[in-house]
Design the sequence.
């Protein structure tokens, strides 16, 4: 079957073929089952209508084989579909370790994007072809949803937390970006485009006209300006956890829980410092809620990432 006969949008990532195969298979199975039932209903309705001369003698009182068949067949089909879909779903969260992070802050009604070197763009995202890209996203107002039909990715972008999604684009070109969560008056206009480029072109584009410092450098500046370094550096007089190489590390908390430090954990620790207090420390850190913008939070996280550790660990 020629996939480009427009039943489905163009497909331009490594994962989109898998999702399409699942969707098409499921559609065919469900249509087949629905059609079989519809045909039987019509046939029986006509044959056994009131007053018809159909043979009603010797009606069977049980048909074990038929009953087992119509119970087991759908069961096997649907469980197989579930396993297939569950596998694909887990792949959404198995981010390749070399994935390139891009940071997304949504607001009514635009997408603000920032690359690790500090280059920013609005409603456009430039990425290299054949390279895993991981989006770390949040919203500064209401819920939005980052939707690229040709990539088969759609992820809610939620105020107060980070969500992530990743993809590997398989061809160069331009692809539509939409907001897929009704977010107010100009929701329908909250779109943009993803521009997939050859790696060399992308590198040149990334460097071109960028006067911003890299996110990690800006994050270090903020780390000092907000006074983080006053407590979190080794020579500080206040005893606070060391942040070097924190991303991806196992963290043991004072209430006995432990977790893996990801972007969401660092964000929560800055805004809600009493939520996850590290074992052996007192809950003395003040909250920075309402004082730091989403962009600055991301920069501080990028600074912490730059100090080492397991960079690649996926959040969520
Ligand atoms: Cu929106």
Sequence:
């Amino acid at each position: 079957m020629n996939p480009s006969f427009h039943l489905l949008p163009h497909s331009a990532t490594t994962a989109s073929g898998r999702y399409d195969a699942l969707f098409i298979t499921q559609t065919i199975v469900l249509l087949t089952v629905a059609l079989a039932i519809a045909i039987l209903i019509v046939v029986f309705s006509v044959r056994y209508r009131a007053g018809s001369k159909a043979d009603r003698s010797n009606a069977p009182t049980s048909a074990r084989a038929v009953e087992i068949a119509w119970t087991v067949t759908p069961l096997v089909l649907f469980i197989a579909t579930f396993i297939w879909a569950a596998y694909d779903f887990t792949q959404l969260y198995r981010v390749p370790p070399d994935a390139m992070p891009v940071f997304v802050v949504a607001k009514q009604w635009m997408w603000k994007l920032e690359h690790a070197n500090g280059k920013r763009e609005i409603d456009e995202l430039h990425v290299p072809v054949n390279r895993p890209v991981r989006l770390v996203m949040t919203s500064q107002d209401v819920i939005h949803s980052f939707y690229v039909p040709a990539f088969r990715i759609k992820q809610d972008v939620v105020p107060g937390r980070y969500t992530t999604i990743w993809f590997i684009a398989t061809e160069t070109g331009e692809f539509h970006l939409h907001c897929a969560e009704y977010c107010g008056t100009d929701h329908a206009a909250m779109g943009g485009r993803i521009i997939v480029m050859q790696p060399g072109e992308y590198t040149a584009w990334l460097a071109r006209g960028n006067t911003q410092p890299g996110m990690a450098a800006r994050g270090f500046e903020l780390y000092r300006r907000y006074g983080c370094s006053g407590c979190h550096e080794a020579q500080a007089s206040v005893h606070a956890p060391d942040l070097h190489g924190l991303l991806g590390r196992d963290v043991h908390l004072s209430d006995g829980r432990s977790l893996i430090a990801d972007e969401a954990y660092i964000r929560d620790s800055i805004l809600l410092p009493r939520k996850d207090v590290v074992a052996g420390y007192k809950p003395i850190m003040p909250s920075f809620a309402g004082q730091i913008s989403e962009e600055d939070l991301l920069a501080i996280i990028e600074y912490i990432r730059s100090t080492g550790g397991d960079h690649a660990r996926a959040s969520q």
